[in-house]
Amino acid sequence: EIVLTQSPGTLSLSPGERATLSCRASQSVTNYYLAWYQQKPGQAPRLLIYGASSRATGIPDRFSGSGSGTDFTLTISRLEPEDFAVYYCQQYGSSPGVFTFGPGTKVDLK
Amino acid sequence: QVQLVQSGAEVKKPGASVKVSCKASGYTFSDYYLHWVRQAPGQGLEWMGWINPASGGTKYAQKFQGRVTMTRDTSINTAYMELARLRSDDTAVYFCGRQYNKWHLLPSTPWGQGTLVTVSS
Q1: Which candidate, A53, A95, A51, A39, places its Cα nearest to that of B104?
Q2: C-alpha dist (Å) from residue A93 to A42, A68, B20
Q3: Residue A54 to residues A14, B22, B93, B98: CA-CA distances in angstroms?
Q4: Alpha carbon distance A4, B4 (integer Å)
Q5: 3-state SS of chain A: helix, strand, coil percent to 5?
Q6: What is the distance between the alpha carbons of residues B20 and B97, in angstroms, rounded to a whole number?
């Protein structure tokens, strides 16, 4: 079973700054089956990125995903006030139809 | 509009079972898989499994095998998640979420509003 590790645990930034979030897998993620979600307090998660680098419908282009194998990155090019939230990576390639979330990275206001 | 509406909060004793419902509207229920994801207080997201409403086929996370059952009733466009032998660490908000689109299985919008299940003696 693939285990996902996210770093840092918390990222303290200001609006307008660039955010770089890391997700590392314990073994190679098949076929780039890596997704990123955003979650705000009291809300369900929101899919941002799937297939490691494809933006989901309606997601602004300041969000981008990259990486392959065991190392993946979510980049927010310029933080907007509404981007302060918790971000989770998720893999879905290790076993068909099985999904695993990482522990999350909190992006908070500096 | 496309939406998922879940049943209300539950309080259960350890060892009991809970059954949470997720009613779909605004789209063809059998066309999209439904996932269940839970979140304990102050903790991260945990994927529990999915159900294919068309066939009733399911896939569960290994952690919940033998304790979770996902079913559906296509006559009322409703999916169910039943968790047995509840423990205090099953206290969480349980979400249902629809498959992203017909080509990508991963969970996405719409989501249900979440159902808080509290397990306490």
Answers
A1: A51
A2: 29, 12, 28
A3: 26, 29, 29, 19
A4: 29
A5: 5, 50, 45
A6: 13
Q: What is the pLDDT of residues A18-77, one digit of tens each?
A: 999 999 999 999 878 999 999 999 999 999 999 999 999 999 999 999 999 999 999 999
Question: What SS3 state is found at B64?
Answer: helix
Q: How many CB atoms lie within 10 A of CB B59?
A: 19
User: Is A84 an 8 Å CB contact of chain B?
Assistant: no
Structural tokens at position B6: 């879940």
8-state DSSP, A29? P
Helix %, strand %, coil % of chain B (to 5): 5, 55, 40
Residue of chain A minimizing CA distance to B96: A44
SS3 A31: helix
Mutation choice for A interface testing from B108, B111, B113, B116 by most A CBs within 10 A: B108
Instruction: Give the β-pairing of B18-25 and B3-6.
Output: antiparallel
Burial (CB < 10 A; 0-12, 13-18, 19+), residue B60, is buried
Q: What is the pLDDT of residues B13-50, one digit of tens each?
A: 999 999 999 999 999 999 999 999 999 999 999 999 99
